[in-house]
Amino acid sequence: MKKVYVIGDSISIQYGPYLEKALRGWMEYGRKEGEEEALLNLDRPQGANGGDSAMVLDFLQAKERAGGIAADLLLLNCGLHDIKTHPATGEKQVPLARYRENLETIVALAARLGPALVWMRTTPCDERVHNSRPDIAFHRFAADCAAYNRAADQAMAAHGVPIIDLHTFTANLGGDLYCDHVHFHEQVRSQQAAYLAGWLAAWLGLEKRR
Predict the structure, then answer these.
(1) 6: helix, strand or coil
(2) What is the per-residue pLDDT across 95-136, written as a single tens digit (0 to 9) for each?
(3) In 2-95, which ranges are continuous DSSP H helix?
(4) E strand map for the chain
(5) How much is the pLDDT for 175?
(6) CATH number for the 3-209 domain, one of 3.30.200.20, 3.40.50.1110, 3.30.930.20, 3.40.109.10?
(7) What is the value of pTM for the model shown?
(8) Any residues with CB less than 8 A from the CB of 54 and at least 6 apart, and which?
(9) Are 23 and 197 in contact (CB under 8 A)?
């Protein structure tokens, strides 16, 4: 049985149980470990939350030192934490140029880890709600999400890495998407998982015909 391994932000943690259920019986599911720790604060990446591109790079480097990732497919995303913006200075957590550099290193490193890399485009955020909340110490902007997605598109296309457009799929689901400023209702999470499972089923079919 093929195995998929997921590294992503809190969005991936939330659709993860639905994806695992959708794959049951025909594909094994695994992900970055530490879900209980991650769920303590979804806005502060820890545990299973992959965090920004620098954190993903650190994690992959640790996996390489430990012998790689035992899976057939590596589903990977980072971006939502990279675009965190300081409200006063406008400084990004990871500037766009550094994000591009990190992705180039991530692609090269992933090629040495074993699984085939597949990139997932970063999901949209509700900047109006997000940036009006006094309990969140950073802003996010849709324009930055789009710019970082474009940068990832270019990097992955240059290296022949397949892309799952989870951003567009999610945006097209309708108006009532969010349970807060960036996370999605249960129904949306279920639909995201079904979309990803469908993509993986098609990938597995291609593999069988080789």
Answers:
(1) strand
(2) 999 999 999 999 999 999 989 999 999 999 988 888 888 888
(3) 10-23, 35-38, 53-65
(4) 3-7, 28-31, 73-76, 116-120, 163-164
(5) 83
(6) 3.40.50.1110
(7) 0.89
(8) 94, 98, 102
(9) yes
